[in-house]
# Entry
Amino acid sequence: MYIVFRYLLHSTKTPVQVWPDLREAHDATCNKGVSRKELADKFPNLDFSACPEKWDFPPHTPDDATVRAERVRRRLKDVARTGSYKNIIVVTHRGIAAFLVQGDRFSVCEHRSYRFATSEEVDKARQGVNVDTGLEQDFGPTVLIPAEKPKTRQEQSSGQVTTINRCKAPALNPSSLGLDDHEVEENATQLQC
# Structure
């Protein structure tokens, strides 16, 4: 994330929040965290207030990841409802993304746009198969569904959530997300695990 959106980290207009619930959903050795102090010292412009002092989480289980995913969706909905953001960019890991949204597995650096299901859509959209576990999963009650690509700039201001699979790649051009630099700085908040 730091490489992909580096230019935004120097802007005071775009808050970057670190949410531990967006951490990976596997127990590989590389998925162990470090203390909040170490992270804050290394990345002083990021908001680590949601992180515990010590990165000490229980071993991964699909049930825990499902609960974490619902907490993230609820929190995203709160941010969308209470903030003045037109877009929310979530940079996370492929494993937890499989618990957040239905669909094919994310490729490295892939981005997709979602919107919150309406109350009429929730019951039909919430049950599905987790692409990583192959198991039936309840993706609700707060459900993110694929957003249709907006045709105009006005349609883009509908408060979409864009999820990006975390990567270490050359800087991502905001225009590939349908945004210009100014729009990203003015209308987005970033969330990172």
The CA atoms of residues 78 and 174 lie 24 Å apart.
